[in-house]
Design goal:
This protein is α/β, with parallel strands linked by helices and 338 residues long. It has a single domain, classed as UDP-N-acetylmuramoyl-L-alanine:D-glutamate ligase (3-Layer(aba) Sandwich), CATH 3.40.1190. Strand 11 and strand 12 form a beta hairpin. Helix 1 packs across helix 9, helix 8 runs antiparallel to helix 9 and helix 9 crosses helix 10. The relative contact order is 0.16. The model has no long low-confidence stretch (mean pLDDT 96).
């Protein structure tokens, strides 16, 4: 009987069909993407043994799943639903870092490009508050992944929805997971969910979220980012990382009460898509191996810096093997304490 592959890391997230118009670079149309694969790539730059957890519709290109497997990712945790699932994602970067996700027709017209048939009928998903009781097709269920996945020792929950964030930590704790990170969904980082945070973050080693999301969560309470980080850490969460895009990351450690500011590595940006997710992957690998919040942030920062220098998730996997370590040594010199 064939033994199951050895899994060190679990990543739960979404897979997308991406249509990207980078600034001054070649369009990347109908390519694999999404938080799940970009986070996994962020881990893979430092380590291997990665199991993917996610859901796709029957219309998702199965050859992409084969490509993930060929790159060394375990896809047994990807559940293919018997119905179609809207997984298209559009983003244009007309001014470099600034992302625009609506009116795709206008952006293709602006660039004099034909509109892709595969993008016909697309509209940007409305931002809604997550449900506490009603799962969606994206919501991860307990039986979506094989039992041996729980032999992993580190896991990351990428933005899906509140119910996934509430379910998976308790499931993971039944296994060998000792390092658990989470990037909460936009629909749960809402003032109405403040009372749900203690339960959602119980047992989470680090919460990683964008400045936009954390500001929305604490809207009307405080404008101080460090105060927001301290509030989040008070819910039994050891580390808070605030992603600030091209400005890098801010880190708060509850145990030491230390604060750090890490600038983004000065990369040659081609396509920013997936950078935040790649950061989460590198951070997870660093935290599992060192359990040092600053070191983990540096690893995540470098993962992001490599991903943005090309389009699509696989570009980063084809760089010179020694590149992450070389950049890591340079980035260490750029850290400052707050």
């Amino acid at each position: 009987m064939e033994s199951a592959p050895f899994i060190r890391y679990l990543i739960a997230g979404k897979l997308r069909r991406e249509f990207i118009l980078p600034y001054n670079h070649k369009p990347a149309l109908d390519i694999p993407g999404g938080s799940l694969i970009y986070t996994a790539v962020g881990v893979r730059l430092w380590d291997q043994g990665i199991g993917l957890i996610g859901r796709v519709g029957e219309d998702y290109p199965h050859e992409w799943l084969d490509q993930f497997a060929a790159r060394g990712f375990d896809c047994r945790g990807i559940k293919v639903l018997p119905t179609a699932l809207e997984a298209r994602y559009f983003a244009a970067y007309p001014n470099g870092d600034e992302k625009v996700s609506d009116a795709p027709l206008a952006h293709f017209s602006r660039l004099g490009l034909p509109f892709p048939k595969a993008l016909l009928g697309y509209s940007i998903p409305a931002t809604q508050i997550d449900s506490r009781v009603q799962p969606t097709d994206w919501t991860i269920r307990a039986g979506d992944f094989p039992p041996d996945y729980l032999d992993a020792t580190a896991a990351h929950i990428a933005p899906i929805d509140y119910l996934t964030q509430a379910l998976l930590p308790s499931l993971f704790r039944r296994g060998q997971i000792t390092t658990l990170t989470m990037d909460p969904s936009e629909g749960s980082m809402n003032p109405t969910f403040r009372d749900d945070l203690p339960a959602m973050l119980r047992g989470v080693s680090a919460i990683i979220c964008s400045e936009k999301k954390i500001r929305r969560l604490y809207e009307g309470l405080t404008d101080d980012l460090w105060e927001m980080a301290e509030r989040l850490s008070s819910f039994d969460c050891e580390i808070v990382v605030i992603k600030r895009g091209s400005q890098g990351q801010w880190i708060y450690s509850r145990a030491s009460r230390q604060r750090w500011m890490v600038p983004a590595y000065p990369a040659r940006v081609v396509d920013p898509t997936g950078a935040g997710d790649a950061f989460c992957g590198g951070f997870l690998a660093g935290l599992r191996q060192t359990y040092d919040p600053l070191e983990a942030t540096l690893w995540g920062n470098i993962s992001a810096s490599i991903v943005v220098e090309g389009s699509g998730p696989f570009y980063a996997l084809d760089v010179l093997p020694g590149l992450p370590k070389l950049r890591l040594d340079k980035l260490r010199e750029m850290v400052s304490k707050a």
